[in-house]
C-alpha cells in the first residue's frame, strides 16, 4: 500500500511557508520604523503636523486646511414626495417631483433641452424640499435668470426656522432677485473667488466676512470681479501692506464695481488712502468700525472732508449687510458714478461666519441651524460719503449743423449749403 506524503514536507508547502514568514518580518519591520519616526516627531496629531508647515510666519499653505464643499451643502432635514399630501397629481407634477428628488444629477444640457415653463415646477419643488444648494441654484440661474418669474428663494416659509428668519430679515419686501447664502469659515477663498467669477448670469456680489482673515485671503478678494459691497468684521486686522496692495489692484482695474466698503480701520492714514483711490473705482461709501469710539471728523484732521461728508445714519447701523448696501447705493447714488443693479441682475448676498464646519452626521442638523443663527459682532461705526461735486459731470458739446470742429488753434467758418429753388417742372428736369 502506497504511503501518503506528509503535506508539511512537500516542496510547494515549504516555499509558501517561507514566503509567509518573510512577509510577516517585512511588515513587522515597517511597523517598527513607523513607531521610531512617530517618536522622533514632536507633533501628536495630524492637525499639529500641518501647523508645522509654514511655521515662523514664512508662508501659509492653505491647501492643508480642512475645507468643505460649500456649494453643495443642503439642509440636513430635506423633504421628498413622501411628505406631500396624498392627492391626485398630474403626470407633469409627478415627473417634476421625481427630478427634484435627484437634483444632484441635473446638468446644464438637460435644462437647455426644455423651456422655463417645464423647469419652473422642478425648481419650485427643489426649493420647497430644501434641496436648493448654491450649485443647483447656479445651474437654474445660468439658464433662466432672465425669466420674469424666476425667484432666487421660492417658498421661503418652508425652510428651517433659522434660515427662513435670516432670509426674510436680509431681503427687501417682494425682492425676488436677492439670493442669501451663509457659509462656514473654513472655506478656501481662492475656490470661492473662482466660483464667483465663473458665473455666467448677470450678478453683483455683496460679501460680509466675520472670521479672522489671513494675508493671502485678503489679497485673493481683489480678484472678485463683480464685488459690489464688502464688509470685513473686527476680528480681522487690516495691515497697511494689505491696503497698499488693494490700492495697487484698484488702480490696475480690479474691484471696478466696488461701491460700499466697511473695514475695521484704526488710523486715519488708512482711510486717507481709500479716499484717494475712490476716483479709480465706483467707491462712494466707506464705513469705519472698531471696538472704541472715535470721532473721525474731530480727531482725524488729515481726512478729505471737502469731497467727503461724515454721516451718522443710525437707522441703517444695525441693518443686515445686504439690505444696508442696497439702501446706501440708492440713497447716496451719484450720476455717472454709481452703478445700480438692473432688473435682471441677481444680487448674491454672502455671509462668512466664524464657525468651522465639521460635517459629522449626528451634529449636522445643529451645525446647519447654528450657521443661519450666528450674527456678526456689533460695535462702533462711522461712515463718510462721497459728495456729488467730487465727481466731474460728463457733458456733451453741442455741435451746430453745418459747423466743423478742429483740434487746432485755428477755426474754420461753417460751410453754407445753398438750397436749390425749383420754380417749374422744366427747371426740375434740367437739374
From TrEMBL:
<feature type="compositionally biased region" description="Basic and acidic residues">
    <location>
        <begin position="18"/>
        <end position="36"/>
    </location>
</feature>
<feature type="region of interest" description="Disordered">
    <location>
        <begin position="1"/>
        <end position="36"/>
    </location>
</feature>
<feature type="compositionally biased region" description="Polar residues">
    <location>
        <begin position="1"/>
        <end position="11"/>
    </location>
</feature>
<protein>
    <submittedName>
        <fullName>Uncharacterized protein</fullName>
    </submittedName>
</protein>
Amino acid at each position: 500500500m502506497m504511503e501518503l506524503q506528509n503535506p508539511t514536507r512537500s516542496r510547494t508547502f515549504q516555499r509558501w511557508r517561507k514566503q509567509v514568514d518573510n512577509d510577516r518580518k517585512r511588515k513587522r519591520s515597517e511597523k517598527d520604523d513607523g513607531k521610531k519616526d512617530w517618536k522622533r516627531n514632536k507633533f501628536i496629531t495630524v492637525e499639529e503636523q500641518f501647523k508645522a508647515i509654514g511655521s515662523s510666519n514664512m508662508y501659509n499653505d492653505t491647501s492643508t486646511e480642512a475645507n468643505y464643499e460649500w456649494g453643495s451643502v443642503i439642509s440636513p432635514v430635506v423633504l421628498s414626495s413622501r411628505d406631500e399630501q396624498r392627492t391626485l397629481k398630474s403626470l407633469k407634477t409627478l415627473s417634476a417631483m421625481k427630478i427634484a428628488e435627484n437634483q444632484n444629477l441635473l446638468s446644464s444640457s438637460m435644462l437647455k433641452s426644455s423651456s422655463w415653463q417645464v423647469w419652473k415646477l422642478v425648481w419650485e419643488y427643489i426649493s420647497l424640499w430644501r434641496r436648493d444648494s448654491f450649485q443647483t441654484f447656479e445651474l437654474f440661474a445660468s439658464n433662466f435668470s432672465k425669466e420674469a418669474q424666476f425667484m432666487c428663494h421660492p417658498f421661503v416659509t418652508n425652510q428651517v426656522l433659522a434660515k427662513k428668519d435670516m432670509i426674510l430679515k436680509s431681503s427687501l419686501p417682494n425682492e425676488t432677485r436677492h439670493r442669501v447664502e451663509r457659509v462656514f469659515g473654513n472655506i478656501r477663498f481662492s475656490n470661492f473667488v473662482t466660483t464667483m467669477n465663473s458665473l455666467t448670469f448677470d450678478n453683483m456680489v455683496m460679501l460680509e466676512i466675520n472670521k479672522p482673515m489671513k494675508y493671502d485671503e485678503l489679497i485673493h478678494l481683489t480678484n472678485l470681479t463683480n464685488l459690489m459691497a464688502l464688509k470685513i468684521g473686527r476680528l480681522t486686522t487690516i495691515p497697511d501692506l494689505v491696503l497698499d496692495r488693494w490700492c495697487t489692484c484698484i488702480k490696475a482695474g480690479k474691484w471696478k464695481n466696488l461701491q460700499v466698503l466697511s473695514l475695521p480701520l484704526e488710523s486715519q492714514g488708512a482711510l486717507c488712502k481709500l479716499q484717494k483711490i475712490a476716483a479709480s473705482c465706483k467707491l462712494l461709501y466707506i464705513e469705519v468700525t472698531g471696538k472704541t469710539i472715535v470721532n473721525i471728523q474731530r480727531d482725524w484732521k488729515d481726512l478729505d472732508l471737502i469731497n467727503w461728508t461724515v454721516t451718522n445714519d443710525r437707522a441703517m447701523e444695525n441693518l443686515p449687510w445686504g439690505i444696508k448696501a442696497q439702501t446706501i447705493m440708492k440713497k447716496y447714488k451719484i450720476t455717472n458714478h454709481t452703478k445700480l443693479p438692473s432688473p435682471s441682475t441677481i444680487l448674491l448676498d454672502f455671509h462668512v461666519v466664524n464657525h468651522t464646519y465639521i460635517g459629522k452626521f449626528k451634529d449636522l442638523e445643529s451645525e446647519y441651524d447654528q450657521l443661519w443663527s450666528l450674527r456678526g459682532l456689533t460695535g462702533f461705526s462711522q461712515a463718510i460719503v462721497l459728495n456729488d461735486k467730487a465727481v466731474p459731470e460728463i457733458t456733451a458739446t453741442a455741435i451746430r449743423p453745418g459747423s466743423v470742429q478742429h483740434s487746432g488753434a485755428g477755426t474754420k467758418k461753417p460751410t453754407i449749403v445753398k438750397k436749390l429753388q425749383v420754380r417749374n417742372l422744366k427747371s426740375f428736369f434740367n437739374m
